Amino acid sequence: MKINRTQSQERVLKLLKTQKRSLSAQDIYSKLRRRDQPLGLATVYRCLDALKQEGVVIVRTLANGESVYSSLKQDQHHLTCVKCGTSIPINECPVHDFEYKLQQSHKFKIFYHTLEFFGICDGCSFTEDIS
């Protein structure tokens, strides 16, 4: 089945696919403006919502409440510092078997999952020890 995306959705998705890190909607808006492909901020949010519902974009909510988006390349797992906001990707995933079982038992198609641990990074912990 062919997915009918708008030109705006294609622009947002293409941008996300080229990024090495997750971006906020404001970041996406700014990057598209710099590329002379401007979209309104409300349009960026609508595109992100549609792409998320399609299962091709992942959204994460950081400790500060900000949402960041990335294209679906693989499930994402992070250690996130609640003090400085640094997110450290982790490659291990203890829930893949559980995900498969959930899909089978609930007849539910899972697009992706996220796993996030919140705490204090070494740099922030070090500065707290000094204070």
What secondary-structure arrangement, pairings included, does this model have?
Elements: H1 7-17, H2 25-34, H3 41-54, E1 57-61, E2 67-71, E3 76-81, E4 87-89, H4 96-106, E5 114-119, H5 122-130
Parallel strand pairs: 3-5
Antiparallel strand pairs: 1-2, 3-4
Strand content: 15-25%
What string gives the helices and strands in order?
A: HHHEEEEHEH
From the spread of the alpha carbons, the general shape counts as flat
Structural class: alpha+beta
> Biggest β-sheet, characterized?
3 strands, mixed
Helix content: 40-55%
Count of DSSP helices? 5
Radius of gyration in whole Å, from Cα?
17 Å
* Strand order of the biggest β-sheet: 4-3-5
First and last CA, distance: 59 Å
Number of E-state strands: 5
The stretches of 5 or more residues where confidence is low (pLDDT under 50) are none
Return the average pLDDT rounded to an integer: 87
Could you walk me through the main structural features you see in this protein, from its secondary elements to its overall organization?
The longest helix is centred in the middle third of the chain and has 14 residues, at 41-54. It contains 5 helices and 5 strands, in the order H-H-H-E-E-E-E-H-E-H. The strands form 2 sheets. Strands 4-3-5 form a 3-stranded mixed sheet, with no helix packed on it. It starts with 6 loop residues before the first helix and ends with a helix. It has helices at 7-17, 25-34, 41-54, 96-106, 122-130, and strands spanning 57-61, 67-71, 76-81, 87-89, 114-119. The radius of gyration is 17 Å and the shape is flat. Helix content is 42%, strand content 19%. Strand 3 and strand 4 form a beta hairpin. It is α+β, with helices and mostly antiparallel strands. Helix 1 packs across helix 3 (41-54) and helix 2 crosses helix 3 (41-54). The mean pLDDT is 87.
